[in-house]
Amino acid sequence: MTHFEKIAAKLKDQGLDAMLITSEPGEFYAVGFHGEGVALITPGKTWYYTDSRYIEAAQQLIPGADVSLPPKGLGYQKTVAQLVKDNSVSKLGFEEQYMSVASHTAWTKEVDAEFVPASELLTELRQVKDADELAAMKEAQRITDEALLEILNFLKPGLTEQEVAARLTYIMARKGAERNSFDPIVACGANGSKPHAVPGPDVIQKGQFVTMDFGCKVGGYCSDMTRTVAVGKPTEEMEFVYNTVLKAQLAGIAVAKAGVTGKEVHEAGAKVIEDAGYGEYFGHGFGHSLGIEIHENPGFHTRNEKPIPAGALLSAEPGIYLPGKFGVRIEDVVMLTEGGCIDITHSPKQLIIL
User: What is the pLDDT of residues 122-139, one digit of tens each?
Assistant: First the structure.
């Protein structure tokens, strides 16, 4: 079953006559194409409209849908308005999570239908990866694993964070990545206490931790991994914090399986950090889902009290961040199954000392 067929099958349950998809990630999920267009999905048919820059590729890459340019002189709104009228659509789902107020105003002005917020329809479908999605994510993760091994032979005192980040991007591209999943994070020394530090001109020095958080896209799907390594001999405190984070990650992964809540997984990992006396230095969730986007739902955090389905992929990334000193984060991507989870990240997690 294609993704747009899966969306069509959910319309009735949501009380919808059709689903309008206008966002880039929604478009890619629905029709498997990155362009600049809109899709309208009804129980019986899918229409995809794009412009002259993408039409040839779209017609080649989107089987099973009506793919065309809007009629001459008409934009997307007027074209969809006619389809809505012709197909007696009264309740039209839209992606309120992505649509701006200005866009909503433009669409509702032209289209004679009730616009019903329906982002959750896509969000729930996107939680569970099918075989093709999983294959793409495994390939992206393989490239990311290989990039770590290569960067470890490059990393040394005297390099800047920016140089390491640029090298990671180059390595992943050379190995077949389409693009980065996000801008790489490389943080040395005290910068490591900032979970989303931006690589800068700071020079890596002997005796520091270096945290590297990076990933790439293959087939439109993301990988994500974080490793913290020591450049030179670490202090006893550095080693203790590192091993605490590793124990926390393993504790959360041990709990993760289909049917558990994100809160349960988060609390299993957070308890290890709390018991070690560093609870106030772990402020984010244990992990997040990913796929077409680097941050998707569901998540391993205290606000998620819904059972997570089998086939969902999430990051497992606890951390401890000591302001002005250093930080440690270790991140893998795991797939939840009925009996547990499968870690698709294969890089070593024991402390690496360069």
Answer: 999 999 999 999 999 999
pLDDT tens-digit map of 244-259: 999 999 999 999 999 9
Residue 312, class by beta-carbon neighbours within 10 Å (0-12 exposed, 13-18 middle, 19+ buried)?
buried
Q: Under a CB-based contact definition with an 8 Å cutoff, are residues 212 and 151 in contact?
A: yes
Same domain? For 120 and 214 the reply is no
d(CA 296, CA 44): 29
Task: Give pTM, 2 decimals.
Answer: 0.95
Write down the H helix ranges in 191-303.
236-255, 262-275
- The domain tally of the chain equals 2
What the block records as the tokens of 194 is: 């900032």
- CA–CA dist 267, 273 (Å, integer): 10
In angstroms, the CA 348 to CA 288 distance is 21
Q: Are residues 254 and 210 in the same domain?
A: yes
Query: Which whole number is the average pLDDT over 208-218?
Result: 98
Q: Do 175 and 228 fall into the same domain?
A: yes
Beta-carbon-side half-sphere exposure of residue 312 (alpha carbons within 13 Å) = 31
Distance from chain centroid for Cα 64: 27
| Residues 57-76: b if buried by 16+ CB within 10 A, e if exposed | ebeeebeebebeebeeeeeb
Which domain covers residue 76, as residue numbers?
A: 3-126
Tokens of 33: 């194409």
Question: Do 141 and 280 reside in the same domain of the chain?
Answer: yes
> What letter represents residue 139's amino acid?
E
Residue type, 149: L
Q: Is the residue at 322 inside a domain?
A: yes
Q: Residues 280-303: pLDDT tens digits?
A: 999 999 999 999 999 999 999 999
CB atoms near residue 46 (< 10 Å): 24
The CA distances from residue 61 to 57, 272, 351, in Å, are: 6, 48, 45
CB of 223 closer than 8 Å to CB of 214: no
CATH number for position 48: 3.40.350.10
Phi-psi region of 176 (alpha: psi -120 to 50; beta: other; left: phi over 0): left
260, two tokens? 């558990």
Residue 35 pLDDT level (bands cut at 50, 70, 90): confident
Based on the domain organization, do 87 and 13 belong to the same domain? Answer: yes
